[in-house]
Design goal:
Elements (H helix, E strand, L loop, with lengths): L5 H25 L4 E5 L7 H14 L4 E5 L8 H12 L13 H7 L1
Parallel strand pairs: 1-2
């Protein structure tokens, strides 16, 4: 009889296969000319999306891939805060904090 957590291990293995497949797809697309992956509004992302974003950032270090992520300042979920801290610790990214545009700036680009 399999251990009680066998299903969890199988699910984790399957999740890792999916993450690795996505990272491989991005790496293949980037092989000739590089690639940019943009993940927006991560302040509203679910846990699975944040896991994928984290995995892609780490995988991109070895490829010609730039991962750009956006999130609203001050609206980070605990999961997003942990992911950002992990990427900083691993030196797997650079964080750029932008202030919101003022009314004049918005009017100029509208």
């Amino acid at each position: 009889r399999p251990p009680a957590d066998g299903g969890d291990r199988r699910a984790d293995a399957k999740r890792h296969q999916v993450l690795a497949a996505v990272a491989q797809l991005v790496a293949s697309a980037a092989r000739e000319r590089g690639a940019v992956v943009v993940l927006e509004d991560l302040h509203a992302a679910d846990a699975s999306t944040l896991v994928l974003a984290h995995f892609l950032c780490r995988a991109a270090r070895d490829e010609s891939v730039l991962v750009v992520m956006t999130a609203r300042h001050g609206e980070a979920s605990p999961e997003l805060a942990r992911m950002r801290a992990s990427l900083r610790e691993q030196r797997a990214g650079v964080e750029v904090v932008l202030r919101p545009l003022g009314n004049r700036a918005v009017a100029r680009i509208a």
